[in-house]
Amino acid sequence: MAAAEMIGGAAVVAAAAGGALAWAALSPESQIFGRTLVAPARPDEIALTYDDGPNPQVTAQLLEVLAKHGVRATFFLIGGFARQCPSLVREVAAAGHLIGNHTMTHPWLAWQTERRIREELHGASAAIEDVLGQRVKYFRAPHGARRPVVLQVAREMGMVPVQWNLICQDWKPLGVDELLGRIERGVERNRRRGVATNVVLHDGGHLGLGAERMDTVRATERFIAQHADVRYVGVDAWG
Length: 239
Ligand SMILES: [Zn+2]
What we know:
Strand content: 5-15%
Largest sheet: 6 strands, parallel
Low-confidence stretches: 1-6
Bound molecules: zinc ion
Distance between the termini: 31 Å
Mean pLDDT: 93
Number of helices: 9
Structural class: alpha/beta
Shape: globular
Order of helices and strands: HHEHEHHEHEHEEHEHE
């Protein structure tokens, strides 16, 4: 299920119950369940973040686009896929991008036991660290879904939990023009708010390797080509 649909559904439940817990668990920018990194007051900066990879069909092409324009990005990897595609993980790291933990199998962590939460986070970090030989310092919860213990475990492991302030639903077949338009409008909205953009895009799909995400690569290329004045940063530039 798409995160935004779930957030919408959760909002209805929360309103009906008169509670804010679902909002705290699912809102990308809520800080109620613990501090998360979203975006600082630097309206000229953009963190391009790519979730659910590595993906043999797409990630290498995305790396080419980013390299061509000298752009550094952040990749939140699914540990199970990292185990299956270690050379691709090495390529992402060798290109200078930041690599983060996106759990082992992409469950909704807000509804999991603490034991499962620990397994998911430790499993993904181990998968990445076995390949790269370096510590993983950033974590993004699948669907942004969390509760306090999710963030506590991430912090215990020395990771900064990262959310976002722009999501474009690029897992849907929107077409490049529509996707690019969503990115443009979101960046503009964040600039007007006086904050950087931390955009979630996808080079993979959590249901399995091989997801079709070439429109994301094409939209990335067009956006970068049209916005050479922007400072593109990894989320590690922000804390
Ligand atoms: Zn994801």
